[in-house]
Design brief:
Number of strands: 44
Oligomer: single chain
Structural class: alpha/beta
Number of helices: 29
Helix content: 25-40%
Largest sheet: 10 strands, mixed
Radius of gyration: 32 Å
CATH architecture of the largest domain: Alpha-Beta Barrel
């Protein structure tokens, strides 16, 4: 409980408006999760300002507000104004712990902190009313926020203490003043903030250094970096571990599906222990509870009885019943190399076939690449099938393939929805499925989809609150970015496959970096959802996909010069041919490499671009069959006007193509794959589908043209966004941007946005026209610069630095579509999305 008097005393804050409540049931810093009776803390972070959500929190039932600037209008809640809300929460927590004389046990480690905290609290709960950090409220902000749930009867607190940056542990101990500490391990995690294992050990060791002489430091002596912390404290030391130097030792450790058994040995006494934790590694969490129990005078039998009630926590190697008799090991809460290795050890001991799902491990700094590759190598030794989710974990999939896992047992994905579909396809009934990933990969969605009873998900799984669904998974590297909805692309691919039918193949055409959507992720997603071929413009685009692990057939639709023939064959690519020079170069390279060169002959039936004229096709293909090493696997043409309302010219081209095809059939020279239809023709000309269709623009939910729109079931996949960089008030008569082409007609509020023509945000001869800010349209004023543009937000109230600006996509009830932008610029939607430059990060 939070008393208003204590809050004012601790923070030096001042009341604003009438007092509505003097006691609060806890802190809340996310208005979407506010419950009646709480105190809402308006935090300013790099990602947003909680002051914008004060009214929302009060409407949800918050009876108090802690803020830095009071809101306008009545709140119906007690309002306390302080200089710094984050500092104020820490100040209150420090006062509350001292005044209540709470004895604090701090728990830290790279992995396993939460499990150890819960085990310790369970054991101490046999004798004391114990407060424990709720969830993972463990950092500089989370720890004091969690202490808002402290009750008057609590005089022992087990606090999880996490640090991912230098100085954070010092801040935590200054708040909590722990008497006792538990340090579990030091391993690869948060290297981006702490630099090295030594840096992690130094930071975690601050907890041990802070202990008083009458306190206890419980240290895992099996970890050399933790054992070394004994020299850094004046407190008493109790070592836990498996070796003979441990004061609290585990012997005869027996992990299994039903939990973990071991014999605890303390000062010559021995006691059989059992708990529901899964995995040998969890013995250290159990030993920490035994050690702390001994510090507080509990006998071993009492401790053993308490640990009997300890089961796996949500998202931490928790076994759950899945569909078709599968066992789901839900380890979706977080991921780090040590945790992945431990989870894979559990899989190895299950004695049943296993599908392993691994998501990205963030925060590993210089160790990132090797850590993900090692995860793949290890998974290949224990898994029947491997599904990876995320850009980093793609490396694990490639490493697993190199380690011998069959290609049809490895699936690379980039969304949890796609990962779930892959698991369903690869997992037999009765198998085990390990799901392990970080919060940013959201693999709890995979677990939810596998449950035998999905109605249990809200109680069993992590991150099931509605608020989590609105949290952006990844932050862009610039304040201007493109968001790609890969699930829209997955959905569109399935819809298009259903439209063309099971006997026609779908080629995903991904020229120009997938029309600006990101070729690697789009290719992988399209293939996972039904595409069987990829089409690109040139060798470089194809090589990028091969390096990323895309193994389906790839056709280079453009010109391949003879000097690229050898590399094309080495990568198993197919070439478009229409000249004997290229064909002979491919033939020579094929003979030298001892591998066939796969070619598709292009016929120009009326496009006037690359390809043979119709009467040249038959003799050319006859000649190709005389060249050793060539495999003529395809014949195709391209329509010039299939996206017109009047398709008479497209049908003329189709008839010309049919005549070529008939001539080839008469001589037995018809290639196995005949294809003609682009997106427009695939949608409107079933007779042009032949053996395969080449879908580009429609894959992304964009219309081939105004005359040939996409079916309403397809969804646009791309949004283009930026942020307000500055807002300034200019007097009437002020010029804006280069050339002084715009002059404010009145006193105006002008906002600068960090996007310009070097991002593909067109400057001339016409610019975008308008953007969306706070759900309303704001006109672009002045000339667009290379990296910045200006918009007039005079008529939009409340605009300030950091506000999201939508260039393409929806905001509020309005939407700016790619087609609208194209019409404004006097071009087509293809050009708009393809011209968003590579320096604009893609977030999916």
């Amino acid at each position: 409980m939070i008393e208003l008097a204590d809050l004012l005393e601790a923070t030096g804050g001042s009341l604003y408006g009438p007092v509505q409540a003097t006691r609060f049931a806890g802190f809340c810093h996310d208005s979407r999760r506010a419950v009646p009776g709480q105190l809402f803390v308006a935090l300013r972070t790099a990602w947003g300002d909680g002051h914008d959500y004060i009214l929302h929190a009060c409407q949800a039932g918050a009876t108090g507000v802690l803020c830095e600037r009071p809101p306008e209008g009545p709140l119906g809640a007690t309002c306390v104004v302080v200089e710094d809300t984050e500092a104020a929460v820490a100040q209150w927590a420090r006062l509350a712990l001292r005044r209540q004389r709470v004895e604090v046990i701090g728990v830290t480690g790279s992995v396993g902190k939460t499990t150890a905290k819960e085990a310790i609290a369970l054991v101490l709960g046999r004798r004391h009313p114990v407060f424990r950090s709720p969830g993972n409220y463990s950092g500089r902000l989370g720890l004091p926020i969690g202490l808002g749930d402290l009750l008057p009867e609590h005089h022992v607190a087990v606090l999880e203490m996490a640090c991912d940056s230098a100085g954070e542990m010092a801040d935590l101990v200054s708040i909590a003043s722990p008497r006792h500490a538990v340090v579990l391990n030091v391993s690869l995690a948060h290297l981006d903030g702490l630099g090295s294992l030594e840096g992690i050990a130094t930071e975690k060791g601050r907890l041990v250094e802070s202990l008083p002489p009458d306190g206890w430091a419980v240290l895992n002596c099996d970890d050399p970096r933790v054992e070394a912390m004994a020299a850094r404290t004046s407190s008493r030391v109790m070592r836990i571990g498996l070796g003979p130097s441990a004061d609290v030792r585990a012997e005869d450790v027996q992990p299994g599906e039903g939990g973990l058994s071991f014999v605890a040995r303390v000062e010559g006494r021995r006691q059989k222990m059992h708990c529901g934790l899964i995995g040998r590694h969890n013995v250290y969490a159990a030993l920490a509870a035994v050690a702390v129990g001994c510090v507080y005078g509990l006998d071993l039998r009492e401790i053993a009885e308490a640990l009997e009630g300890m089961g796996p926590l949500p998202g931490r190697l928790r076994p759950l019943p899945g569909r078709n008799g599968i066992l789901v090991l839900d380890d979706s809460y977080s991921s780090a190399p040590t945790g992945v290795a431990a989870a894979l050890d559990v899989v190895a001991g299950l004695g049943r076939p296993a599908t392993v799902v691994l998501g990205d491990m963030p925060g590993l700094g210089h160790a990132e690449e090797e850590a993900h590759r090692e995860a793949g190598r290890r998974a290949a030794t224990v898994a029947r099938a491997l599904v990876t989710c995320g850009e980093r974990m793609r490396l694990a999939a490639l490493e697993a393939l190199r380690s011998g896992l069959p290609s049809d047992s490895v699936r690379i994905t980039y969304t949890p929805e796609d990962a779930l579909r892959a698991v369903e396809a690869l997992t037999p009934p009765g198998a085990a499925v390990l799901v392990k990933g970080s919060a940013e990969t959201r693999l709890e969605a995979v677990v939810r989809g596998l449950l035998a009873d999905p109605s249990k998900a809200d109680n069993w799984l992590v991150r099931q609150e509605p608020a989590w669904r609105a949290v952006r998974r990844k932050r862009p590297t610039r304040p201007t970015w493109v968001e790609i909805d890969l699930e829209a692309i997955a959905h569109n691919t399935r819809e298009l496959c259903a439209l063309i039918g099971p006997t026609v193949r779908l080629m995903a055409v991904l020229k120009a970096d997938g029309y600006g959507h990101g070729a690697v992720k789009v290719a992988t997603t399209a293939v996972n959802n039904g595409a069987s071929w990829i089409g690109v413009a040139c060798l470089g685009e194809a090589l990028l996909l091969r390096e990323a692990g895309v193994r389906v057939p790839i056709l280079i639709l453009g010109y391949t010069p003879p000097w690229q023939a050898r590399e094309l064959i080495e990568q198993g690519l197919a070439a478009t041919v229409f000249s004997m020079e290229t064909a002979r170069a491919l033939s020579r390279a094929a003979r030298e490499l001892g591998r066939p060169a796969r070619v598709h002959v292009k016929v120009d039936t009326g496009m006037g671009r690359l390809g043979l004229l119709p009467d040249e096709a038959l003799p050319f293909i006859r000649s190709l069959h005389d060249l050793p090493g060539l495999s003529v696997e395809g014949l195709f043409t391209h329509f010039a006007a299939a996206d017109s309302a009047d398709q008479s010219y497209a049908r003329l081209q189709l008839e010309r193509f049919r005549r070529v095809l008939a001539a080839l059939e008469r001589e037995g020279l018809r290639p196995p794959l005949v294809h003609a239809a682009n997106s427009a023709a695939a949608l409107t000309m079933p007779e042009a589908r032949f053996d395969m269709v080449r879908v580009g623009i429609a894959l992304f939910g964009l219309n081939p043209s105004q005359e040939v729109p996409c079916p309403p079931t397809l969804r646009a996949a791309l949004s283009f966004k930026t942020q307000i960089a500055q807002v300034k008030r200019l007097p009437a008569g002020s010029f804006v941007s280069y050339g002084c082409t715009y002059c404010t007609p009145r006193e105006s509020l002008i906002a600068v946005i960090p996007v310009g023509y070097a991002d593909g945000f067109r400057r001339a001869p016409r610019h975008w026209g308008e953007v969306l800010v706070r759900g309303r349209r704001a006109p672009i004023v002045g000339r667009v610069c290379m990296d910045q543009s200006m918009i007039d937000v005079t008529d939009i109230p409340g605009v300030r630095q950091g506000d999201e600006v939508v260039l393409i996509g929806a905001q509020g009830s309005d939407r700016i579509t790619v087609d609208e932008v194209a019409e404004h610029l006097g071009t087509i939607n293809y050009e708009v999305v393809s011209e968003i430059l590579a320096r604009v990060p893609r977030v999916s």
